[in-house]
Design brief:
About 45% of the residues lie in helices and about 20% in strands. By secondary structure, the protein is α/β, with parallel strands linked by helices. The termini are far apart. It binds coenzyme A.
Length: about 160
Amino acid sequence: MTRAIYPGSFDPITNGHTDIIERSAKMVDHLIIGVLTNNAKSPLFTIDERTDMIRKVTAHLENVTVEAFDGLLIDFAKKCEASIIIRGLRAVTDFEYELQMAQTNHVLSPSVDTVFLTTNLKYSYLSSSVVKEIAHFGGNVSEFVSPYIEDRIKEKLKGRA
Ligand code: COA
């Protein structure tokens, strides 16, 4: 049974993430989305909100589950008994950081490999921060996130106004 992890902050999940999730879910038996409690970032959504939103958006995918994690990614991979880490590459600028991470993780645990999927061209410019910034200034984010996520962002930003 092939088990893979797709890790990230997902603050919030965008259509670019969902594209990677749907494509990688077809390649493995079980895909675990690992949602990082990232202390280096100040997230708009709490860890529980982010995991809950991903569960809703991926509910149609039977072999996908969602779990929060902190600490080292490689420890989370071992805990999940996953042999693959999935990462999306949006542009050349992602490559250096991703290569360093993949190589370091491979040294820490040689039984775990990182597999890169190129992001769909129509999402290659996208990031969660861009989505939040557009929404913050009242712009339309319906091209970038699902209607459910769009509502959650609006609700959250209204609470902050
Ligand atoms: N579509 C749209 N946006 C995408 C995307 C895609 N396919 N792929 C990445 N992004 C965006 C994200 O939205 C995010 O945007 P933001 O910075 O505006 O929030 C950005 O790219 C990068 O985020 P993400 O992929 O979530 O990575 P991250 O840097 O938050 O976390 C981990 C990456 C979780 C893999 C890494 O931090 C980690 O492993 N942490 C654990 C600690 C550890 O093990 N460290 C040692 C590593 S060697």
